[in-house]
Amino acid sequence: MSDEQKQMRIDAGLVRELAELLSANELSEIEVEDGDRKIRVRRELTVSAAPVQHVVAAPQAMAAAPTASADSAPAAALEPAGDVVRSPMVGTCYLAAEPGAANFVSVGDTVKQGDTILIVEAMKVMNPISAPRAGKITQLMVANAQPVEFDQPLVVIE
Description:
The chain is mostly beta strands. It contains three helices and eleven strands; from the N terminus they run H-H-E-E-E-H-E-E-E-E-E-E-E-E. This is Biotin carboxyl carrier protein of acetyl-CoA carboxylase.
């Protein structure tokens, strides 16, 4: 076999498609393996490329207690007061940097915008979740090492 035949042929379209998947799903690395061929596309996350935090304003509190009826929306009534930080991806939530370490935040802590409040691990990549604004942590809605879904509420900041 000549040296030319031994070299891997790169499918530029596949690499481009993998890079688009990284951006679209806010991942930092993706790897594809097909027989002897293995392609890994990776990008370094910077502060400006950190996962986007989804913040949803809580609905106004109702004056009277809601009654159970087909027209009522119980999910809206259960939304906590304050800004809800939601998971930008499916993964496992970690409240501390490593086992045995102190949690990034606890209920009652004051945070500044950009402070790391927890980590969501997705495909062996640790993705720090930052506070979208300054405020006080009023509720942690997940436990350490808990699996989380996309858009699942994680923390409430007032």
